[in-house]
Specification:
Four copies of one chain form a homotetramer.
Chain A lengths: L1 E6 L3 H12 L3 E7 L15 E3 L2 H6 L5 E4 L6 H10 L3 E5 L6 H13 L4 E4 L6 H11 L6 E9 L6 H6 L3 H4 L1 H12 L2 E9 L4 H5 L5 E8 L4 E7 L7 E8 L2 E5 L7 E4 L3 E2 L1 E3 L5 H4 L1 H17 L7 H20 L3 E2 L1
Parallel strand pairs in A: 1-2, 1-4, 2-3, 4-5, 5-6, 7-10
Antiparallel strand pairs in A: 7-11, 8-9, 8-16, 9-10, 11-12, 13-15
Amino acid sequence: MLNIAVVGAGRIGAIHAANVAASPDANLAWVCDPVPGAADKLSHLGGRVGLDARQAIASDDVDAVVIGSPTPTHVELILAAVEAGKAVLCEKPVDLDLARARQCQAAVEAAGGRVMIGFNRRFDPTFAEVHARLQSGEIGQLEQLTIVSRDPAAPPASYVAVSGGIFRDMTIHDFDMAHFFLGEVESVQAVGQNVVDPAIAEVGDSDAAVVVLKAKSGAVATIINNRRCAYGYDQRLEAFASAGMLEARNQHATSAAVSTATLSGAANRVQDFFLQRYADAYRLELAAFVKAVAEGGPFSPSLADGVTALALADAALESSKSGQTVLL
Amino acid sequence: MLNIAVVGAGRIGAIHAANVAASPDANLAWVCDPVPGAADKLSHLGGRVGLDARQAIASDDVDAVVIGSPTPTHVELILAAVEAGKAVLCEKPVDLDLARARQCQAAVEAAGGRVMIGFNRRFDPTFAEVHARLQSGEIGQLEQLTIVSRDPAAPPASYVAVSGGIFRDMTIHDFDMAHFFLGEVESVQAVGQNVVDPAIAEVGDSDAAVVVLKAKSGAVATIINNRRCAYGYDQRLEAFASAGMLEARNQHATSAAVSTATLSGAANRVQDFFLQRYADAYRLELAAFVKAVAEGGPFSPSLADGVTALALADAALESSKSGQTVLL
Amino acid sequence: MLNIAVVGAGRIGAIHAANVAASPDANLAWVCDPVPGAADKLSHLGGRVGLDARQAIASDDVDAVVIGSPTPTHVELILAAVEAGKAVLCEKPVDLDLARARQCQAAVEAAGGRVMIGFNRRFDPTFAEVHARLQSGEIGQLEQLTIVSRDPAAPPASYVAVSGGIFRDMTIHDFDMAHFFLGEVESVQAVGQNVVDPAIAEVGDSDAAVVVLKAKSGAVATIINNRRCAYGYDQRLEAFASAGMLEARNQHATSAAVSTATLSGAANRVQDFFLQRYADAYRLELAAFVKAVAEGGPFSPSLADGVTALALADAALESSKSGQTVLL
Amino acid sequence: MLNIAVVGAGRIGAIHAANVAASPDANLAWVCDPVPGAADKLSHLGGRVGLDARQAIASDDVDAVVIGSPTPTHVELILAAVEAGKAVLCEKPVDLDLARARQCQAAVEAAGGRVMIGFNRRFDPTFAEVHARLQSGEIGQLEQLTIVSRDPAAPPASYVAVSGGIFRDMTIHDFDMAHFFLGEVESVQAVGQNVVDPAIAEVGDSDAAVVVLKAKSGAVATIINNRRCAYGYDQRLEAFASAGMLEARNQHATSAAVSTATLSGAANRVQDFFLQRYADAYRLELAAFVKAVAEGGPFSPSLADGVTALALADAALESSKSGQTVLL
């Protein structure tokens, strides 16, 4: 049994805490959140609750730390946990500042720390299946990857203003998926759009974007993002290869379909809340973390993968501003 | 080039005449219809036009006859054509009276005549593909066949009153499909319904029905009929076998699909007019007829198949009235 | 919190026990199974374990009983629990003998007992959605219901021999669904088949069947069963109504699809284990039971529904043997 | 009846000639091809045959000219026809050289000539439906268009070498579609790939590409091309808008689908020959041309549209070489 402290009791922290509590191989030792009362809301899950993450991290009865606190705290908490010899699963992104993320990576490597980054989509059963079948050679060599990722509704501009921008905040997941599927990326092109909310334009960010990444292998990934999607949480992927294509299609709460005088075979609205769409992914991500800690195996996605995704985000931002392809 | 006379210039006769005219292997010699002016409307197709089918049938420049006239005339015209030594493609049903159809069959056999019955669905590319793949053994032995056949809208009760009833008029196509897929049928159960138009009940007919047929092979076919279907012309088939299933799905005029705030992936209304849905089937049926005449090969569906379908219709009617399984 | 005793620690009992333990509104008080050691395997769920169901049923700290023991014990346990004033959720079927089930129903009614029957499919989110949308009038009046229900693999003939036969053992679920959708059924026709395993024929049972039920409303339900299905657990339903159709389609573990040189858009094998396919249904069934007990609301499906399903099974068996429509 | 001369009797010319011959509103006056014997192969369609296009163009019995000859002849033939006062339907591209295409456009405009360019996809029933429904406002404002266009197999490098390159030869159709859907395009980014045939790389061309176009409206179109597609002729489009999405899905020769022990619902290979996939489009394109000539209405796509598509192709080529966004 791995004793885990969960840092952060917000929306994501609550998921991780519940998954730890439900895991047959882990024990929820602590839930910490500096906001008074926040961690208490998760006390029914059975762990100790506290305000100070550092106390939990340092505690002898904690083997590993899951970090689900706000982005600006990630680096500090990672380093504290590594210093204390604890394994870490940290939510994305590592940091909004690439240089700082790289310093963190260097420090962790120097200390021999073990840090996994929470790109949960790698663990989504459908995406994972497509990846595994592609790796198995079932459809030959990957040539073109298309990732469609659209949120049901745009966040308020006030959130967007401090989010790091669409590429670091939203596309970051897709950058990791592209990297996961394509391997090393050589160049990035990006086009930003403002089609959803003028307030997002006013804070200097795009609310939709298309990014094209070319890999060393010659394969190209296209990412299509939008902060708003009328029909739900649009999460699709097509891996086109020399001998076929594997698709990850959208998902629905039920398999009901209707036909009427004007249409036929209509499924329901696409499953539209990320906590439902990726519930399995979060659970399987935690299981992979627990297993890797227990067996001493490699962490995937690693801290280095987290830094790579951030570097791709920065490159996309630069390209969207300069109109030039950015080489990595 | 096979010189063909088309008898009947109504909706179906017009299709046959156009297909004959367009065939690279046939020549439209005549179009006959006793209704003054009816055949003239097809004169642009290039054949001679006339009122008297017997004149065309007897003509030396006619090798074969396509009969698309009203059902009560079928037997007489078949026998006239056979007597004149002409090959025949006759629309379904052979006759509404089973005894009379059997007499016709006996007379044709005695005379060595060659008669094909126009069960066009055997030639529909999708149904034909499912049949061929099943015959090839791709999914093992057929165990359960489901045929869904629903018309977009019910005919007027005045038509229904002289139609021979739902089993002889509408289900007859499905009886032929069941026979085509299952081989010899041993027993029939049927349930009639009145759910669409009270006027149809008043003329003593059902407007929906479910028929279950058991074959000598042990396989069972289920036919589900309805005179009305809100979403179009519902024409589906599932062949369930020991190693899998082959489906014939509904078809649409285009491959467009829409997703909105309330639904996703909605195709258009199912293609809803039988002349469009089965345009290819009518064309391929004629081509098969022309080829069989030219090569002297067997006719399929044969006159005997036409009589079998009618016998199944009669059995279904009897079962729907008696509540008993009818053995054939 | 409702204190629940689960009787039976086999495959189904284990599901119920886990769902009780996970319920926010229920407490797992006991798990009983007369097989030594069986209940102990579920001791990690937190309830007391025992061999004697009657002890648990009588216990003051038990408010309700979930019966998941073998069918022959159902009636006795239902009556014991009702006598002890406990609410009951009992697995289907009530009994294999209709007369005995009716006696049980009479006794329960006389005692004012409250018994729900575990037809879990009513709680499957997809079937429940189709039912609710139909009830709402979204597609008009129901005319024809088609239920396809095929198991991935046939049970051994030794099980079949004591199962009560395909209609009471397998179709029973579909009879309840038909009844749930159509209301009162007036007549039943059935055809049995032997296409899967000769050993099943030897024990006098069918291994596939088609059943047609006509309701008082005029609607007809067709049930298509097979003990074996190469492509998985085939669980579909089509509700055809005056203004459209609602379908419950098959489900897959992931939404991956593949296209290759020979095929396109192929989903994975249909989800093939009933515990996965109906995991949500079992959970929601328990929640409905707990809620109905707490609120004193009606139980659905009721004990009377359980008796009705059994009566339909008996009628189908009789019809399959006599070839006659059986009136209810 | 519009009297039409078809210039070019190759694969495309033969389609146009057959469509003219079958049109109720047009007459096939001539078929010309300088290759001895080529036009004769189409003599059965009923027009005069000849070697010299100029003779047909000048002929008094010709009202309009359909140009399906090799690209290098297009400009000269367009100008000859315009000079003779004949309406023109010319296959894409106008020319491989943008400057020459612009000169042609200027000359035609100066002469008041009427020239339509054969971007047949605008007339494909599915694409046309998606366009029309989008224009109707059914799904709100267009934000992101995705065009997937992959050929079943790459042409030989010898053809590629004289084709003008992937952007002018293959993507040209997609540029017209993007322009058709998005209106005026402001900027182009492109990435070329060499993943299919090394011989294509040797002649200096890409065999796959991703192009991103940004329109004045703020909408973005992404075009994904590949010279080879294992599963057939991949021709899809997604129009994502503020209130929903309209898709044009791939098409299949039949609606058959198979389920087996390892997969479910597999359609056949995607329809893989462009003459089949776009048979309706070619026919409807001709009908639109004939109608526009008869009614004096505007030509769409116009010669200007043809020049625009070529300008987009040149911009894409430049961007793929420079790595910079090209402004138009």
